[in-house]
Design a protein that fits this description.
By secondary structure, the protein is α+β, with helices and mostly antiparallel strands. The protein folds into 2 domains: 136 residues, Immunoglobulin-like; 55 residues, no CATH class. It has 3 helices and 10 strands. Strands 4-5-6-3-8-9 form a 6-stranded antiparallel sheet, with no helix packed on it. Strands 7-2-1-10 form a 4-stranded mixed sheet, with no helix packed on it. A hairpin with a 6-residue loop joins β4 and β5. It starts with a strand and ends with a helix.
């Protein structure tokens, strides 16, 4: 099943999604104790699945049951009246969702598992390109847009976040940074070592450590 079952995730709108299961194998996919595990950054059928560990049968006659496992993880499994998916046929499952604005809201590498068997990644969802995710709606997430973020080219400050104020409560001991101090670093850190070893930065370290 993991090799021949094709799973496609369609974002119909920001509040509605659809999973299509296509049987690309030569044998029918029958009812059994198997389940597909899906990780969605958002909430699926909040009214039905919140505080409902038993899950519920999705509407539409697909005879699939959706269960919220934990966090972003959901389980999709055939229900008692599930009819086999013949070779070359497909079945569609629709459900409500929230916060779906970007392809990365759906994790790749969806997998199928059954009690007593080793879980397997569904082949067409493997990798990180999310090629199995489609949308008839424009996916945007303005909060994470980088279109108007300037590239500074370098860090403007030595310490980020830069503290506005340092309060030294212990005045009984001081650290003196003198010529006897040596700065060592690993290979490929020569610039950083030279930077810290300069006299200007020795004064900075002395003031900071004391």
């Amino acid at each position: 099943m993991a090799k021949h079952l094709k799973l496609y995730f369609d974002v119909l709108s920001p509040s509605m999604a659809q999973i299509t299961l296509f049987n690309g194998g030569s044998s029918p996919i029958r009812y059994g104790k198997w389940a597909i595990y899906i990780c969605v950054l958002g909430i699926i059928d909040e009214q039905q699945l919140t505080n409902n560990p038993e899950g519920y049968v999705l509407p539409g006659g697909s005879n699939f049951k959706m269960t919220h496992i934990n966090g972003c993880l959901y389980k999709l499994e055939p229900h008692n009246n599930f009819k086999s998916i013949a070779s070359g046929d497909a079945i569609k499952v629709q459900f409500n969702t929230t916060l779906f604005r970007a392809r990365c809201n759906l994790a790749p590498n969806l997998y199928i598992a059954s009690e007593g068997l080793e879980p397997r990644t569904i082949a067409n969802t493997a990798g990180e390109d999310l090629a199995f995710v489609f949308s008839s709606d424009k996916l945007t997430w303005d909060e994470f847009s980088t279109a108007h973020v300037a590239d500074l080219g370098h860090a403007p400050y030595m310490v980020i976040p830069t503290p506005k104020k340092l309060v030294i409560t212990d005045t009984t001991s001081k650290v003196s940074v003198g010529q006897e101090w040596r700065v060592y670093g690993e290979k490929r850190l020569e610039n950083e070592v030279n930077f810290l070893a300069s006299m200007e930065d020795r004064r900075f370290l002395e003031g900071f450590l004391s």
